[in-house]
Amino acid sequence: MHGSPSCAQQNQKKTNTTVDPEDVYRHGQLTKDWWDEQGVLKGLHSLNLIRIPFVRDGLVQCSLDERDPTPLKDKKILDVGCGGGILSEGLAKLGASVTGIDAGKDLIELATEHSKNNPKLANNLPSYFCTTVEEHSQERKDYYDAVVASEVIEHVYNKEIFVKACVETLKPGGKIFVTTPNRSRITQILGIYVAEYVLNIIPRGTHQYDKFMTSPELTFLLERNNCHVELTYGMIYYPFSNRWELSKSQLLAFATQAEKLK
Q1: Which of 78, 158, 159, 228 has the highest Cβ tally under 10 A?
Q2: Where is this region: Disordered (predicted)?
Q3: 84: Cβ–Cβ under 8 A, 6 or more apart, which residues?
Q4: Does 63 belong to an annotated binding site?
């Protein structure tokens, strides 16, 4: 197998790792298209328009009049499964001290190079590491103000290990933000079959239905790891206008915010 290697031990049993080497490989094949805002990953780019405010508002409560251009300047944020850095850069532009981690070496190299060439980040470059969250959690326990896992948990093998490791990196009182497709037949039809094989707006093979989870399942894992789920929104994507919005309906996808208890 050629392409982006995994930084995890690929001979580990699936039950003992978060990393799916096949997923790492698939995403590594997209490096040349990653920063094309009108390309195959345009939905990830447009998702920033709702996920960045979702994280910002979960961490900083202030009125529009009080808000400054860098409201996250005192926050240390871990972007898990950062890929080529689309979300990491967006958070860094708001002043956050961002650490991005990913198991794909090629993607980490892309993220590092792209951020260096972004003049808006000249004084606040994200730090990127090729590693897994379970490895990173051993080095950075109780360290971050926030952990963001956006469009990632649906690609990991062992979700229990994943959530546990994410929470371990958080300071008590820190927040974790997760966005992910919901496991429903509607998502299987629209989010996989139609999106990947009919409209071709997502690269084929990106998602495997049996890896999806539901909001109650995620809530259960978070609460079992000493977190209180504060809110969950549904998310809807309109492919023809490339636009996302938060919704009451969680049928297709959802965004969850939780706090690590002190």
Answers
A1: 78
A2: 1-22
A3: 31, 34, 35, 107, 110, 111, 114
A4: no
Q: What DSSP element (H or E) covers 256?
A: strand 253-260
Q: Are 220 and 16 in contact (CB under 8 A)?
A: no
Closest CA to 144 of 126, 172, 171: 171
174 is in an annotated binding site: no
Distance from C-alpha of 177 to C-alpha of 90, rounded to nearest angstrom: 15
**What's the confidence (pLDDT) of residue 22?**
85
96's CB contacts (< 8 A; 6+ apart) are 72, 73, 75, 76, 77, 124
| Res. 3: pLDDT tops 80 | no
Q: Is 65 annotated as a binding residue?
A: no
Q: CA 25, CA 208: separation in Å to the nearest integer?
A: 15
User: Which letter does DSSP use for residue 222 in this model?
Assistant: H
The answer to whether 134 is annotated as binding is no
Q: Is the pLDDT of residue 205 over 80?
A: no
Residue 211 DSSP label: G
Q: What is the pLDDT of residue 15?
A: 63
Which DSSP string corresponds to 162-190? HHHHHHHHEEEEEEEEEEEEB-SHHIIII
Q: What is the pTM of this model?
A: 0.91
Q: Is 155 annotated as a binding residue?
A: yes
CA distances from 75 to 70, 94, 231 (A): 10, 10, 20
Task: Return the DSSP state at 192.
Answer: I
Tell whether residue 79 is among the known ligand binding residues. Answer: no
Q: Is 66 marked within a binding site?
A: no
Q: How far apart are CA 218 and CA 229, in angstroms?
A: 9
